[in-house]
Amino acid sequence: MVKYRTIRGVGSSELIIEKSRFIGRICEVVSKDAADRFFAEIRKTHRTATHNVPAFVIGENMQHQWASDDGEPQGTSGAPILRMLTAGNITNVAVMITRYFGGIKLGTGGLARAYTAAAKAALDVAGTVDVEDGVRFRYAVDYPHLGKLKVLAERNGFLLNEIVCAEQVLLTLTVRKEDEARARSCVTGLTGGAERLMEREDCDIRL
Hints:
By secondary structure, the chain is α+β, with helices and mostly antiparallel strands. The chain has helices spanning 32-45, 78-87, 107-126, 146-156, 180-191, and strands at 2-7, 11-17, 20-28, 51-58, 64-67, 93-100, 128-141, 159-165, 169-176, 196-206.
């Protein structure tokens, strides 16, 4: 079951609207402190900008939301960015839109559209991903079983990684929680019960 939606990676954008330059940046954060560090870094880089408009949405239920207009008319910049994020059910993200004023006033509606467009463009670059409840297994298996396990993972949408070659192959298999019993049964079937389960832990999974 999907817990929440967030971004795949960092994203950036740059738009020129009526001679004003809008630079968008978005990154994944899980705390206000992380968002503040992200904002501070951008303000340092763009200390001569006319405005640096920040916004963040944090929490699986989007319970922590905040934005500032940073000197733009009230409700024309930070709030539209928040609405765009929450309308898309995007959380655990921080966004900052930097504006260098080009000499032409956009009006309240124009500002809202411009800031939303810059944020949306950065979001499109970052991409989105659904985060689900998952389970991570660490196994030790004999080398002849590795190829079959790779095929199993590919066919079933499991994640197989952290392969280390030692006396046996040490690997990590990550699956949706709802697939836990089936995955363990498949591994046992492929190895004839010769696999050694070294660790099991709950985790988030992005597939």
